[in-house]
Design goal:
Layout: H1 2-16, H2 24-68, H3 101-116, E1 124-126, H4 131-137, E2 141-147, E3 152-157, E4 180-182, E5 194-198, H5 213-216, E6 225-229, E7 233-246, H6 258-271, E8 287-293, E9 299-314
Parallel strand pairs: 1-9, 3-4, 5-8
Antiparallel strand pairs: 2-3, 2-6, 4-5, 6-7, 7-9, 8-9
């Protein structure tokens, strides 16, 4: 009887004792929770890093626009050239060498004066970009591109390769958004048959992401011009094609034989996915190709314009 009582007492004590908490199942649950929190924290950190890079790059360009660019009046409203305003140099290659240009202008003036008793020059336009101060920040600046229909306004740099400015800003900060840059094989004077400017298609709409507007908003193409401002000249381009192309091929060639160039211009105009109007093209034309990515590594989005007008840059006193 006492043995039975001792057994019952031990049984009661064992079953009244609190059960051990935890075990393998609880450990796994805790581990998964810790991993989930870690993944969330890492993702949040990465997202913050992306945002910070986007913000850093775009803040730099907003400051540059605010401090060194004064579009007043906007170039799109500049009066059209009349015959009395000047002679356009017949050979665009004359712009290749800065020291030769004054000779070409003087020659054009002299020939016109001898023939008509009048003097004509290239038309002038106020340059809205302070290149003296921009060059002090980065001597590799060669221009400033403005695409009014897409709210694009950025400095253009050029160096000896096409890698550096992919992920370095105009101020040479290491930022993913990089800088708008000219193909390293192109002349910085925009005299090649095809001058190529590259820019990222950023998710926040910055850099060359705005080129999408030509496809997405029919109002954008109603302003079918873009501009390249340089220290000495201002170039106005008339858009003739907006297309999606292979990342390899003719759109990324800078020079052509005459017959090949004629075929290239015709092909690109026919390939346009946007109605850019009837823009006459000849092998004497010089074009600029604005290029950005599409999200598909095999293709690129490009907008192309032909040189419409050259202005001598004039600066406000």
């Amino acid at each position: 009887m006492s043995r039975r009582r001792d057994y019952d007492d031990r049984y009661d004590q064992e079953h009244d004792r609190p059960k051990k908490k935890g075990g393998f199942g609880t450990f796994i649950t805790t581990l998964l929770l810790v991993i989930a929190i870690g993944v969330f924290a890492f993702s949040a950190y990465k997202l913050y890093g992306y945002w910070a890079e986007y913000h850093k790059g775009e803040s730099e360009y907003k400051d540059l626009n605010k401090q060194y660019v004064q579009i007043e009046p906007a170039p799109e409203t500049a009066p059209a050239q009349t015959e009395s305003e000047g002679v356009i140099l017949s050979d665009v290659e004359a712009l290749e060498k800065e020291d030769k240009l004054p000779e070409e202008v003087a020659s054009a003036k002299k020939a016109d004066a001898e023939e008509n008793g009048t003097v004509k020059t290239l038309p002038e336009m106020y340059n809205p970009v302070n290149f003296a101060e921009l060059q002090a920040i980065n001597p590799e600046v060669i221009g400033w591109v403005r695409v009014g229909g897409c709210d694009i306004s950025y400095p253009v740099a050029q160096t000896t390769d096409n890698e550096y400015y992919l992920h370095h800003t105009f101020k040479k900060e290491s930022v993913f958004s990089g800088c708008i840059f000219e193909n390293c094989d192109n002349s910085k004077f925009f005299t090649d048959q095809n001058t190529i400017l590259y820019g990222h298609n950023m998710k926040d709409g910055s850099m060359f992401a705005g080129l999408r507007k030509f496809w997405e908003n029919e109002d954008a193409i109603r302003n079918p011009y873009f501009w390249v401002f340089t220290k000495d000249f201002i170039y106005q381009y008339r858009i003739f094609s907006c297309s999606i192309v292979s990342k390899m091929g003719d759109p990324y060639r800078t020079r052509f034989l005459t017959d090949d160039y004629a075929e290239f211009l015709k092909t690109m105009q026919n390939a346009s996915e946007v109605d850019c109007g009837n823009v006459p093209l000849t092998t004497d034309d010089r074009i600029v190709t604005l290029s950005t990515c599409t999200g598909n590594d095999a293709t690129r989005r490009i907008v192309q314009g032909k040189l419409q007008q050259v202005y001598i840059a004039k600066y406000r006193q």
